[in-house]
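Sequence, please.
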């Protein structure tokens, strides 16, 4: 009887500890928010080298980007293409609104006016690269996020988070049924992400590395590799000259600014 009581007490203690650990665990949504959070800086200015590699050929692009996130959860970014000459001046403006419809605009100098990106186009290729409009400016609110595992990789503990578009239409528009993100537990660095089809086949894969401390506790992954496993192509983004808290005004993120010539 004494032995049985000890076993029972051990079992109860195990249940208590397990429930305590699970209660203290972050949710999938909280993990994604921390991994993508810009709240520790007012704004961020970066230069980007884009390399598109397909069939043994490589094309290079030079871009600039300014991004800011407000306290109300809205996020605004403006990307301008600096080279080569035939696409210089092309721009992309994204405005994520927590309380209303998001806005994305593409400006092509040859057309002379911006074109709004529809929700159906969010899964389309961004300027011929393997990144989509959604990858460049994702909206976390369009997904259901859930922790599905916790693993050790390269001597660090990693959250495995599943993100599923909330509607069938979103899945169709974005071009994938599920996204699996691997995020380090200690610093919430996104290590890689896998994009899966309805059949569970991996169709694209993103790897992020070379994290650099910009200011205080704000780190930024300066190397991104996106591979399209169906088309057998890949795109590399290298982030350079990263500057936080430039003091850019919110009025910068407008269609008028998007349409201005590159200075």
């Amino acid at each position: 009887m004494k032995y049985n009581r000890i076993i029972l007490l051990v079992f109860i203690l195990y249940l208590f500890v397990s429930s305590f650990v699970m209660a203290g665990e972050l949710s999938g949504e909280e993990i994604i928010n921390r991994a993508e959070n810009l709240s520790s800086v007012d704004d961020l200015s970066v230069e980007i080298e884009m390399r598109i590699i397909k069939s043994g050929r490589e094309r290079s692009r030079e871009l600039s980007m300014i991004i800011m996130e407000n306290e109300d959860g809205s996020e605004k970014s403006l990307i301008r293409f600096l080279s080569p000459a035939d696409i210089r001046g092309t721009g992309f403006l994204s405005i994520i609104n927590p309380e209303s419809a998001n806005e994305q605009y593409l400006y092509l100098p040859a057309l002379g006016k911006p074109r709004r990106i529809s929700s159906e186009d969010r899964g389309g290729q961004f300027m011929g690269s393997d990144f989509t409009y959604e990858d460049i400016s994702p909206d976390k609110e369009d997904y259901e996020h859930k922790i599905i595992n916790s693993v050790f990789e390269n001597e660090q503990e990693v959250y495995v988070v599943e993100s599923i578009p909330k509607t069938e239409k979103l899945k169709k528009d974005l071009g994938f049924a599920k996204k699996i993100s691997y995020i380090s537990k200690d610093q919430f660095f996104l290590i890689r992400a896998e994009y899966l089809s309805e059949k569970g086949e991996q169709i694209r894969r993103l790897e992020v590395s070379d994290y650099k401390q910009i200011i205080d506790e704000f780190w930024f992954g300066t190397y991104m590799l996106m591979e399209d496993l169906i088309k057998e192509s890949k795109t590399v983004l290298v982030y350079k000259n990263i500057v936080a808290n430039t003091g850019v005004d919110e009025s910068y993120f407008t269609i008028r600014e998007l349409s201005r010539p590159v200075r």
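Confidence is low (pLDDT under 50) at residues 2-23.
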